[in-house]
Amino acid sequence: MFLTDGKQHYIVTPNPEIVLEAQKDEELFYILNQADLSIPDGIGLKFAAWAMGKDLKRTTGVDLISYFRFHFSDFRFAMVNWSGGLSKKEDIKKVFREFKIKDFFVKDVEREEKQNLDDLAKFKPDILFCTFGAPYQEKFVYHNLKNLPSVKVAVGIGGAFDFLTEKIKRAPKIMRIIGLEWLWRLFKQPQRIKRIYQAVIVFPLKFIKWFFVNPFLYRSNVACILFKKAGDDYKILLAERRDEPGHWQLPQGGTDGEDLMTAGSRELREEAGTDKFRPIASFKNLWKYRFAKNSTKSGTTSRSSFDYKGQKQGLFIAEFLGEDRDITINFWDHRSWKWVDVDSLAEEVYPARREATKVFLEKFRNHITHNS
After folding, report:
1. What integer best gives the mean pLDDT of the chain?
2. What are the residues whose beta carbons fall under 8 Å from the beta carbon of 177, sequence distance 6 or more?
3. Pairwise CA distance, residues 201 & 203, whole Å
4. Which alpha helices (H) appear in 124-172, and where do they start and end?
5. pLDDT by residue (tens digit) across 61-82?
6. CA distance 142 to 31
7. How far apart are CA 90 and CA 31, in angstroms?
């Protein structure tokens, strides 16, 4: 049990909007997948599970809070609340009193600013709720949980307290049962139309493509050669994958519909944490391979049964203009980085990547030779 095993745990409550956001925000994607427990919220996830032959139990934020209320009221609760939200500190304190929770602490904060959590740590809560909404609450919990050693369970609950404080009236039970709670929210909060459109229209279309179309397609990918001059020679950046120690590779990622120069620049900013480079060249369709089916560690990438068939890779070349201290490798993809001599690059990468790396390296050498 999370509250008695002596460890810290965090719970996420994904809905269709959060799932869509995680496709664009790699840090959020990582945090969601590292959670100790994922409790689905949103009827769209239930419908998607049915399409996959699974029955997914949906639990709303209000129901989750009620579960904690009835089963763990003897523990110390704390709430980190966004000061710009509908429910203010006094509204939330009133709910905690109505729940007959004796020990609680509510902190209003500006979610975009770095938080001083000393007073929260001194209170020593067992259970922490965060109401920032995605992706702020998930990132806040992930990065700050270690600084709150008394917390045994932390949960991002979005706007669930707005229903409990009656700032928003909850949909009638029949609408919740038949999956039309989103329509009720639209009537009550028409300003949410963009978010509801994402959940009701965009998510189902994305799911249909992912489930029925992607297995027949190759994902467009860009591999990045970031180099720096070392006397008369060059060194190239390699990154070590977090999920597989010893798996070294060139920084790379999906193009997401962008041209190679744009996608390659974005990938370097995201993966190497720097913009101190000069784009040099790009080359389309240099390497193509199929993913290993039903394998979590294929030597190239992981995939599910309904993801892409494989990848088609282009190459982006850029010159590094900064200092080594300007590189901050992202924690969700990689654990380390290093500069490697050009001549030893192919031997330094993970074995399954060597043939592709040789192709990329030949393009790099040819371009440098003809343009130097």
Report:
1. 91
2. none
3. 6
4. 136-144, 160-164
5. 899 998 998 889 889 999 999 9
6. 7
7. 31
Measured CA distances, 165 to 13, 58, 77, 116, 188 (Å): 20, 22, 17, 26, 16
pLDDT in tens, 240-275: 999 899 999 999 999 999 999 999 999 999 999 999
* Run of H or E including 281: strand 277-290
Q: Where are the alpha helices (DSSP H) in 103-259?
A: 118-123, 136-144, 160-164, 173-177, 181-188, 193-197, 203-208
Domains of the chain with CATH codes: 9-210 (no CATH), 217-371 (3.90.79.10)
Tell me the C-alpha distance between 182 and 41, whole Å: 12
Q: Helix, strand, or coil here: 226?
A: strand
How many whole angstroms separate alpha carbon 360 and alpha carbon 264? 14
Per the listing, tokens 């010159």 go with 319
pTM, two decimal places: 0.88
**CA atoms 360, 364, 365, 370: torsion sign:** positive
Distances (CA, A) of 89 to 48, 80, 92, 96, 148: 37, 9, 5, 11, 20
Side chain identity at 117, as an amino acid letter? L
Compute the half-sphere exposure of residue 197: CA atoms within 13 Å on the CB side of its CA.
Answer: 5
